[in-house]
Design brief:
Layout: E1 6-12, E2 17-19, E3 29-36, E4 41-45, E5 49-55, H1 62-65, E6 69-74, E7 77-86, E8 89-90, E9 92-97, E10 100-106, H2 111-122, E11 127-134, E12 139-146, E13 149-156, E14 159-168, E15 176-182, H3 189-208
Parallel strand pairs: 5-13, 6-14
Antiparallel strand pairs: 1-11, 1-15, 2-3, 3-10, 4-5, 6-7, 7-8, 9-10, 11-14, 12-13
Length: about 210
């Protein structure tokens, strides 16, 4: 997997919140949970296969996050930047708890910031996500059968880098949903995502043999 660097986008259905200002008026601080530990989510579903993944506690630590350049975005689009933490400093804050990683940022007074704030306030955006690169040897794969379908289970135990946290329109899985996309692929998000999903499926098949 390291030869073809892949980011994995994990969505969680933990509700986003807007923190009120000190005087009780509506604030601009958006907070939520970007990373959920110990919840198996769906990477991809085919007619005869499923790929599922779980981020284990300890795979992502405060020390790791403090070494990363983490961008807070809308739908993983770096052009829709809402905040940023560079080596633990910046406009994006986070805390690592037993059940996951929680974040907070003040929506900037920009078109994208105002849009994010309004969409979260209305409930049109209700989930969040993060992009990461697994560490070499930082995952274990097993295989099981569910009826006629083969299910690959990937347990992520170590992460090399966290690239972003993101507000996403629809958390596609009740607890955690995972999709894959090649990191910085010029083919565009849709083609790149499908290509990386297929590569991850092939990798899991080899690992489970």
């Amino acid at each position: 997997m390291d030869k073809q660097i892949t980011t994995i986008y994990t969505r969680c259905a933990t509700p986003l919140k807007i923190r009120s200002a000190a005087d009780g008026t509506p604030g601009r601080t958006i907070e939520g949970c970007a990373i959920v530990f110990g919840q198996e989510g769906l990477v991809a579903r085919y007619e005869d296969e499923e790929i599922r993944e779980v981020i284990m506690p300890g795979a992502i630590t405060r020390e790791l996050l403090d070494r990363c350049d983490i961008k807070m975005t809308l739908n993983h689009d770096p052009q829709q930047l809402l905040g940023r933490s560079q080596e633990g400093r910046g406009t994006l804050s986070y805390d690592v708890h037993d059940d996951g990683v929680y974040f907070a940022f003040d929506a900037p007074h920009t078109v994208d910031g105002d849009k994010a704030l309004e969409l979260v306030r209305r409930g049109d955006i209700s989930g969040c996500s993060f992009a990461f690169i697994p560490a070499r040897g930082g995952y274990k794969v097993s295989r099981s059968k569910k009826g006629d379908k083969t299910v690959y289970h990937c347990e992520v135990t170590a992460v090399r880098e966290v690239a972003d946290f993101s507000l996403v329109v629809t958390p596609a899985y009740p607890q955690t949903s995972v999709s894959l996309r090649r990191y910085a692929d010029a083919a565009g998000p849709d083609a790149a995502m499908q290509s990386a999903i297929e590569a991850q499926a092939a990798e899991m098949e080899r690992a489970a043999e």
